[in-house]
Amino acid sequence: MSSNRIRKQQASLAKQPRQSEREFVSGESHYFWGKRYLLEVIERHGKHELIIKNNKKMKLFINPKTSKANRELVMNEWYRQQLKARIPELLEKWQPKVGKTVSTWGVKKMKTKWGSCNIAAGSIWLNLELAKKPPECLEYILVHELIHLHERCHNDRFRARLGQVLPQWKLYKNILKSEPLGVCPRTKN
Ligand SMILES: [Zn+2]
Fold first, then answer.
1. CA triple 100-148-109, angle to 5 deg
2. Out of 51, 94, 164, 180, which residue is the most buried by the measure of CB atoms under 10 Å away?
3. Cα of 185 to ligand 1 centre, how many Å?
């Protein structure tokens, strides 16, 4: 390849947006608990629905002419349900180990954080995007936020508590760090 062509190719690569935009159309890859699924969009009249098929396909049933924004909404709602179904058993497991009980918890979209907490209110929030990561990442963030109910800052006491209950926490932290928020893993179909 001529150096000129290489330069041109590099320039065009640099122009590509770093985040692969999702259109919520058939053929796209979407993630759930760290696993990649191929999206199949099926238009039909009736209830909006998302079904996992054969451990490799996500079937999204939507009404004809559903906008991209609404397709995204249906998927996010599904992710929210999956997270909400998993969190109670994790709280049951971890609250006694950490020695704190939450008053309320919730799931929300956050742009810069995987989780947050309100120490005074005793509540924790988990990022919706965690449904796309390996389940251990949700567990790590949940434990992390629970420990914040003891320690506001990431100080030595915080890390000691974390290391005591979840010795392998750095592994999960690194998984989340390797795929920053708002950046989807590259789609290769
Ligand atoms: Zn923290």
1. 105
2. 94
3. 24
Distance 114 CA to ligand 1 centre (A): 9
Q: How far is the CA of 92 from the centre of ligand 1 (A)?
A: 21
Euclidean distance between CA atoms 153 and 2, whole angstroms:
54
Question: What pTM does this model have?
Answer: 0.84
Residue 31 has which token pair? Answer: 């993630």
Give 29-88 pLDDT, tens digit per residue: 999 999 999 999 999 999 999 999 998 999 999 999 999 999 999 999 999 999 999 999
131: helix, strand or coil: helix
Q: Where are the domains of the chain?
A: 23-75, 83-189
> Where does 83-189 sit in CATH, by number?
3.30.2010.10
C-alpha span between 57 and 38 (Å, rounded): 5
- Determine contact, residues 7/106, Cβ cutoff 8 Å: no
Cα distance between residue 47 and residue 109, in whole Å: 24
